[in-house]
Design goal:
Two copies of one chain form a homodimer. With 203 residues, chain A is an all-alpha fold. Chain A has helices at 11-34, 41-48, 52-58, 62-67, 76-83, 91-107, 113-123, 125-137, 139-152, 159-179, 190-201. Chain A has eleven helices and no strands. Chain A binds a DNA duplex (30 and 30 nucleotides) through residues 10-12, 15-16, 40-42, 50-54, 56-57, 60-62.
DNA sequence: CTGCAAGTTTGCACCAAGTGCAATGTTGCG
DNA sequence: CGCAACATTGCACTTGGTGCAAACTTGCAG
């Protein structure tokens, strides 16, 4: 799921990627068309041109395939900058940058990914839960970032709280973008989202 | 799941409640002892003294039973007060009261419930997904509260953002309580949790 | 107390998700 | 070509979960 479109590491690997993409594509199309429960793994496998058994060689569960969720990794350069107290030095501003980086990592190479995933999640609340759980799995990655940063530029509070704020920020921006007709870039909504949150806790 | 220990509405109903409690208890004990995947519904049913089929008359899924997550309902009196702009009139203070009400509704009659659920989620990340699903299911209930309140005492921002803040507050308080050795009442940690969140967004 | 109606439990048959295993194909490479 | 590594597949099996209808419990009216 990282942004390396041209990994020339063998023909075999490329085929594998193509298959995975085909599965995700088939899964998403079918689920959007007929609803999650009405689509069986068998149907997805058939649409992707593989056997049902092979489906599970690629994804651990139907949910994973539908959300197309591999693992994500934050850009190493950005990570270094953030833990060193950057990029701007003001925590709130850096929070926004971090949230943007997260959104980028989620989207992967496909700019349409957030739209499709949002649509899916609206149609199938079940998947929202899965999506959050996936976030939770990567929570440590974000929390570590804050812990390291704390050493050189002390945080106003503990890393766990900072992490939660970042995730809320991501979610709020996504909601905002969705409410605004999904125009333009999700990250543009980050400042407004942060302002809204601040308005509540400072009321 | 509401806090009415002595609902004298029929003997039949009492029996039903007792069974449900027995199922949750059996499920939690077994899962904490052997791990989620090693415990079958059949085993839980047997431990609770019912047939496997009856298990599904009480809970929609194994996950629901393990988390003991029925539906919750906020106290009607409190709801009325909150939408009327109460109880204190200061939004942040009222947010804390709302969060406390949520924690109460979740815990139900058993004060140990939050501890067990936290422990379960730490041991079985799988359950996180379900926990979030539950959150999402009840999000509307809380959001409606804010929408109604807005009519008589305008909010600084939209109901959706307020709702997210409340849930983060709940979560943060729970974390805090957990970090402090799970002493005393979770709700005591709410003010500190709110302060921490404010510290981040105001940095 | 009797008997009926409504609600509950349970067994049974069934579908779908997911796993382990072993056979069968494919692919890359010396 | 031929072999070793890897990928696909079929098959049998476990488990979660549902629909249905029969049996049983319980509350209540007469």
């Amino acid at each position: 799921m990282n942004a390396n479109p041209v990994d020339d590491i063998g023909l075999r690997a490329r085929k594998k990627r193509a298959r995975a993409d085909a599965i995700v594509d088939a899964a998403q199309r079918l689920v959007l068309a007929h609803g999650f429960d009405a689509v069986t793994v068998e149907a997805i496998a058939e649409a992707a041109g593989i056997s049902p058994r092979t489906f599970f060689n690629y994804f651990e569960s139907k949910d994973d395939a539908v959300l197309g969720q591999g693992s994500f990794d934050l850009d190493a350069g950005f990570r270094g900058e953030f833990v060193a107290g950057g990029p701007t030095g003001r925590l709130t501003a850096d929070l926004e940058v971090l949230a943007a980086a997260l959104l980028g990592a989620v989207a992967g190479s496909d700019p349409h990914a957030p739209a499709r995933v949002l649509e899916l999640m609206q149609a199938e609340p079940r998947l929202l839960a899965h999506h959050f759980a996936w976030f939770e799995r990567h929570k440590n990655q974000v929390e570590d970032l804050f812990t390291e940063r704390h050493a050189c530029r002390p945080l106003p509070t503990d890393p766990a709280t900072c992490t939660m704020v970042v995730f809320v920020l991501v979610r709020a921006a996504l909601d905002d973008w969705d409410a605004g007709g999904r125009q333009g870039d999700v990250t543009e909504h980050l400042p407004a989202a942060l302002a809204k949150i601040a308005a509540v806790v400072n009321a």
